[in-house]
Write a structure and sequence with these properties.
heterodimer; A: about 160 residues; alpha+beta; five-stranded mixed β-sheet; 7 helices; elongated; B: about 475 residues; alpha/beta; four-stranded parallel β-sheet; about 45% helix; about 10% strand; globular
Chain lengths: ~160, ~475
């Protein structure tokens, strides 16, 4: 069951499309539900599909195609570090190594306390601020240094 | 001489974290798409109105300007698609069917995911109303009733800024029903991607707007006849739309005169990598590369320039010697055997290992191939595995021919241009930096890094 808050947000997204094109809202509906629940379980996919009156497979294939959707748990904070060329040239490897050492996890792993998950990201379209990372998809931190990463992690604790 | 890598100390110009985005030192720039940057609150409606914003839209709609006159102005401006392909915008607009029984759509492609590209982001977060005005003028011209701006999912804070600007514009009467007391109606919405490079391809983007996987469609039919929800749709890049209000104010000729023949106007260049001040720089088309590099703070740490990818990885890499004399415009870069692309300049200094750089790019294309066409789906994986083998010291000399062969068998054999995009870095890196690849294969380690180690070791020796 979707929460009333999620339904309100999805209804707003539906106003952007013709009434007979409810499938179009699936990108935002999945994003809204993931933001609320942390990740997209089978049940979440079903909830979204039922609300939009679309086949479950239509919601699932979208969730599986776009890499900001998570089909397995990512802890309380998902940290995605870009390692693509512009970030690489500004030493994103140092940031990745620092995060791995600090959190004690590798890519796609969740810390034992369920707090953090580390992911490798593709180009985020903000290369002037390299190296950079996002927290839970929607908050971007740029011009990272190991010290800055420490401060960000500290604030999330 | 190389120096050890240290923490960057530069202060880029346009960023959230560098403080106020106000630009007191234009530093040789010509701000047109980013003209609000000189103001205190660049993204606000108030700022945009103060600078004459929305007056072109109001005049055009109120005076019932003929669509053909507007298209003529856009053609005269020499504006070419800023998303990378460089197709003349005015010509594209003339492909939209004039009479159609039903809704026509307007789409803005703000799905910047090509590594090194981040210009549209600054238009969205610093000058969203100019983009909205440009889209509204396009909608009036092409008879589009509904528009979507599809924004890259990773720049979420900027998506929020754009949505807020849309609400502001609607409340002020610049979007919605019966604008300026006429029968012109235009609804514009923000929609988002969620992590898929391929959605920057216009038909994949359209599929994504419809709520599907971003897999490109066969063309033809082109979006002008079969686009969003199967209806006629015009797709342009963010920077293209944002240029329109200025063209309508000053005329197509004035815009063309800012640039050079066949490359009208200004262009936003996203400069990233090994420069002192990474960021966006808006300059006149035809600006010499050396001037642009200087604006961006030059090569950082006093090092020497090794190579530049001038327009994102889907444009061929250029050794320093090839780009130093080039001008930044469509013909200038094609004469120098590369391409302007989206103006995404990735600058690499002498410490860059080109083998490792290509290894990372090959992973990107492998990861982002949508999987629809076999040559791309299989070929990008093949290239990535061979590159991994080389980087792990297990490469064979024949691998260089294999990489070239596989890449040539991807390019031109796919539905969309991602195939060419994936092949270009492989072919151009090996072409220009073959000795580095050969060294890596022969010695099982990076030539550049070996040289750097030798320098550091040399210094460490007691005199």
């Amino acid at each position: 069951m979707l929460s009333p808050q999620a339904i309100e947000k999805i209804d707003y997204e539906l106003t952007k499309y013709p009434a007979d094109q409810r499938l179009a809202a699936v990108m935002s509906a999945l994003r809204i539900v993931q933001t609320e629940r942390g990740w997209l379980s089978k049940e979440s996919i079903t909830d979204v599909a039922q609300y939009l009156r679309i086949p479950e497979i239509a919601a699932l294939e979208v969730a599986g195609f776009y890499n900001m959707y998570d089909l397995s748990p990512v802890g309380q904070y998902k940290i995605t570090v870009c390692t693509n060329i512009s970030c690489m040239l500004r030493d994103s490897d140092e940031i990745v190594d620092h995060l791995k050492a600090k959190l004690g996890v590798g890519f796609n792993e969740v810390t034992a306390d369920g707090k953090f998950c580390l992911k490798e990201g593709e180009c985020m379209g903000a290369c002037g601020g390299a190296p950079l990372m996002t927290v839970n998809n929607h908050t971007m931190h740029e011009f990272l240094t190991p010290e800055k990463v420490d401060a960000i992690l500290e604030a999330l604790k | 001489m190389t120096t050890p890598i240290s923490t960057p100390t530069s202060t880029p110009m346009n960023s959230y974290e560098a403080g106020k985005p106000i630009m007191t030192d234009l530093n040789g720039q010509t701000l047109l798409c980013l003209r609000t940057l000189t103001e205190e609150n660049p993204a606000s409606l108030e700022t945009y109105i103060k600078l004459g914003g929305y007056s072109a839209l109001k005049r055009i709609v109120s005076e019932n300007t003929k669509a053909t006159d507007i298209i003529t102005q856009v053609k005269n401006s020499g504006l070419r698609g800023r998303g990378g392909a460089g197709f003349p915008t005015g010509l594209k607009w003339s492909f939209m069917p004039r009479y159609f029984d039903g809704i026509k759509y307007l789409v803005c492609n703000s799905d910047e995911g090509e590594p090194g590209t981040f210009k549209d982001r600054d238009i969205i977060r610093y000058n969203p109303h100019q983009l909205i005005e440009g889209m509204a003028i396009a909608a009036y011209t092409l008879g589009a009733r509904v528009g979507y701006n599809y924004i890259h999912g990773e720049i979420w804070q900027d998506y929020d800024i754009f949505e807020a600007a849309l609400h502001e514009a609607k409340a002020a009467g610049y979007l919605g029903e019966n604008l300026f007391g006429t029968n012109f109606c235009f609804d514009l919405y923000a929609v988002h991607g969620y992590g898929a490079y391929i959605c920057g391809e216009e038909t994949a983007l359209i599929e994504s707007i419809e709520g599907k996987k971003g897999q490109p469609r066969f063309k033809p039919p082109f979006p002008a006849s079969y686009g969003v929800f199967g209806k006629p749709t015009n797709v342009n890049n963010t920077e293209s739309y944002a240029s329109i209000p200025w063209i309508m104010h000053h005329g197509g000729e004035a815009f063309a005169a800012l640039g050079v023949p066949n490359s009208g106007g200004t262009k936003l260049f996203s400069v990233s990598g090994h420069v002192g001040k990474p960021g966006n720089y808006e300059v006149k088309m035809g600006t010499p590369f050396t001037e642009l590099l200087e604006m961006a703070g030059g090569v950082w740490k006093g090092r020497k320039l090794k190579a530049v990818i001038p327009g994102g990885p889907s444009t061929p890499v250029m050794p320093a010697s090839a780009i130093m004399g080039a001008t930044m415009d469509y013909e200038g870069l094609s004469k120098a055997r590369s391409s302007l692309g989206a103006g995404s300049m990735i600058v690499m200094d002498e410490t860059t290992c080109m083998v490792k750089a290509l290894h990372r790019l090959s992973y990107f294309f492998y990861e982002e191939s949508c999987g629809q066409c076999t040559p791309c789906r299989e070929g990008t994986g093949w290239v990535y595995r061979v590159m991994t083998r080389i980087v792990n010291g297990k490469g064979k000399m024949e691998d260089l021919d294999l990489l070239t062969d596989v890449s040539n068998n991807i390019a031109g054999r796919t539905i969309c241009a991602l195939g060419e995009a994936a092949a270009t870095p492989v072919l151009s890196f090996i072409k220009h930096f073959r000795p580095e690849f050969e060294y890596y294969i022969q010695h099982g380690k990076s030539m550049v890094e070996s040289q750097m180690d030798a320098v550091v070791d040399g210094k460490a020796e007691p005199k």
